[in-house]
Amino acid sequence: MPSPSLPDAGESRFPRLRLMMLATLLTLSVALWYLAAHLLRGESDVDWHLASRPCDLHQAACRASLGDGRSLSLGIDAPGAIRALELLPLTVQVEGVEVLSASVEFVGRGMDMGLHRFPLSEQDSGRFEGVGQVPICTESVMPWQARVVVETPQGRLGSRFDFTVERSVP
What we know:
16% of the residues lie in helices and 43% in strands. The chain contains one helix and nine strands; from the N terminus they run αβββββββββ. The chain has one helix at residues 15-41, and strands at 46-49, 62-67, 70-76, 87-95, 101-108, 117-124, 127-133, 141-152, 155-166. The protein is globular.
């Protein structure tokens, strides 16, 4: 009578357990990546204000009221339209409040595209300028959001301006 064969000691007794451990590690890695991205953006202490409508950054600067006669505007001086991978002159103008620093961040709406923050340099009272760049995306039309954050002695103020970028066809 043949004896029952025993599994080789080198064979895994729990292949499903290894697969579950791998899936758990991947899930934890993704969760930590999202947490790190959220912490790097550091937007929890920003007092956000709605952009005035209509707003088309392709055509002109967009404005947001900060209340009490204060305002913030963002202009992107792109000839024709805002395009991915082109250097974009950025201008932020703030009225009615003392500003210590200003930055613009481009955020993909509906798709995490990473951190693309551009600090601006003060030119004169309340006017900040710099250069930014929208990264490339695989979508033919990609919705973006420009998040402007200004640091004031009273705290951080900001506004969000939506726009789209069409991928240029060579």
